[in-house]
UniProtKB/TrEMBL annotation:
<dbReference type="GO" id="GO:0003842">
    <property type="term" value="F:L-glutamate gamma-semialdehyde dehydrogenase activity"/>
</dbReference>
<dbReference type="InterPro" id="IPR016162">
    <property type="entry name" value="Ald_DH_N"/>
</dbReference>
<dbReference type="InterPro" id="IPR016160">
    <property type="entry name" value="Ald_DH_CS_CYS"/>
</dbReference>
<dbReference type="InterPro" id="IPR029510">
    <property type="entry name" value="Ald_DH_CS_GLU"/>
</dbReference>
<comment type="similarity">
    <text>Belongs to the aldehyde dehydrogenase family.</text>
</comment>
<dbReference type="InterPro" id="IPR016161">
    <property type="entry name" value="Ald_DH/histidinol_DH"/>
</dbReference>
<keyword id="KW-0520">NAD</keyword>
<dbReference type="InterPro" id="IPR015590">
    <property type="entry name" value="Aldehyde_DH_dom"/>
</dbReference>
<dbReference type="Pfam" id="PF00171">
    <property type="entry name" value="Aldedh"/>
</dbReference>
<dbReference type="GO" id="GO:0009898">
    <property type="term" value="C:cytoplasmic side of plasma membrane"/>
</dbReference>
<comment type="pathway">
    <text>Amino-acid degradation; L-proline degradation into L-glutamate; L-glutamate from L-proline: step 2/2.</text>
</comment>
<dbReference type="InterPro" id="IPR050485">
    <property type="entry name" value="Proline_metab_enzyme"/>
</dbReference>
<protein>
    <recommendedName>
        <fullName>L-glutamate gamma-semialdehyde dehydrogenase</fullName>
        <ecNumber>1.2.1.88</ecNumber>
    </recommendedName>
</protein>
<dbReference type="InterPro" id="IPR016163">
    <property type="entry name" value="Ald_DH_C"/>
</dbReference>
<keyword id="KW-0560">Oxidoreductase</keyword>
<feature type="domain" description="Aldehyde dehydrogenase">
    <location>
        <begin position="53"/>
        <end position="518"/>
    </location>
</feature>
<dbReference type="GO" id="GO:0010133">
    <property type="term" value="P:L-proline catabolic process to L-glutamate"/>
</dbReference>
Amino acid sequence: MTDKSSFKLTYSTMFNPPEELHTHFAEAMEAQKQKLGQEIPMFIAGEERFSTEKNKQVSPINTDLHLITYQRGSIQDAEDAIAAARKAFPGWSQMYWDERVYLLRKTADLIDQRLFEIGVAVTLEVGKNRMESLGDVAETAELIRYACDQMEANRGYRARMGKDPLVGFDSSNTSVLKPYGVWAVISPFNYPPALTGGPVGAALVAGNTVVIKPASNTVWSPSILVDCLRQAGIPDGVVNFVTGPGSTVGKTIVESKDIGGITFTGSYDVGMGIFHSFAQGDYVRPVILELGGKNPAIVSKHANLDDAAIGIVRSAFGLQGQKCSACSRVFVEAEVHDALVARMVELARTLKVGDPAERDTYMGPVINRAAYEDYQSFTAELKAAGKILTGGEVITEGEYARGYFCQPTIAVEVPLEHRLWKHEMFLPIVMVHAARDLSEAMNLANSTKYGLTAGFYGTEDEVGWFYDHIEAGVVYANRPQGATTGAWPGYQPFGGRKGSGSTGKNSGGLYYLPLYMQEQIRNQVRRF
């Protein structure tokens, strides 16, 4: 991670970083500010491409801050990117798997070398605080390495099967996993490096070629990842990068019959639309979807309330609640409800909201005006239905006036039939309910279409009960580092069930990489 420390940055360790990370981040921030306003090209068939129409990307910290100019790609640009990836597929897919692993590990090393450069871009374009941003970049490299490790551990996913019991013949069978073809990666704004680089790394290691379309709010950091792939020596046409509206560029990619598979991370409604649209092809093709969550924390009357409070606050308000794993619902046994809420309110009031480039800032701005207006609408609903104990207002004074800053918000006494108990707000708002007992808490926790992450605080015996009954893909117990957040490749692979995911296999885990490949059984018969 750095040359001066054995510290390993993860979402669990980010709360106590060495001083050198702050020093290097500050230096990189000054360097990147000198480049603001630069034009970012698309990248198709090994060449930079510029379009007639351009879009400016501004910062949610200060909308007067022009970060980059990016290309407003067209339908033709998307089609050209797909064609380039299709043309490059035979050569890339037939390359020995260990050569692909070498190039992707080289890419991960380059991402590490550019950790602070990319981290600064994430802070400025997303509004993440500096440690969240650096964690995003570090996770990107680790996701790519994990995919490489899995390919290597499984020897290229080539395995001998049983021999047929034929008299007079030797009948051998081999299982081989092979790539699908052109793989599309449509990534979200909240983790632009990790949720671009992770799927792209897996698709490439598996032998697919890729077409990348980042979110229009966050083009900058994914473009640096593409530059790392180019610098590593990935052949022309294997990686293609197109930018522009989802209504044209995104739609062209999703509707193309030349796309062999797709990974999308984003909202439930958009993801389900992609799922249905992608099914209109000539045959069934793989769709890897991660579609958000309404993540609960359950707190027993036997819990360590200090651990519970800090874990919930970190997960509810990290990245301004704009994580699909953010804790948005808390069900706590009634006996300790007031004590837990008091601790949560106390902690929330200590969080600094402001410029995320500053080292003591915990919460930066939300991503754009639509999210800013949603926050005001949701808090108005909660004030009318229940009580807001802290937060509930946007911040508009002084330097905050040109950004999208919202207060961390804790709501109580909201009737359980209220729609916001089940609606993914994706904002710094957490709702708390006093449950009669753990059984009621569990029933409420599971009563949504989502099943991404969940947290629990209680005794060892209660933890076992929680694991057995919760409907979620990533579950945490007694974790002060974050009640529902903090997954890391090789440690806590990330993914969900029900309306939160389409495959039941978690990114950064043992079973993810094979999703990018299809099995071929090879039988050969020889006479004795």
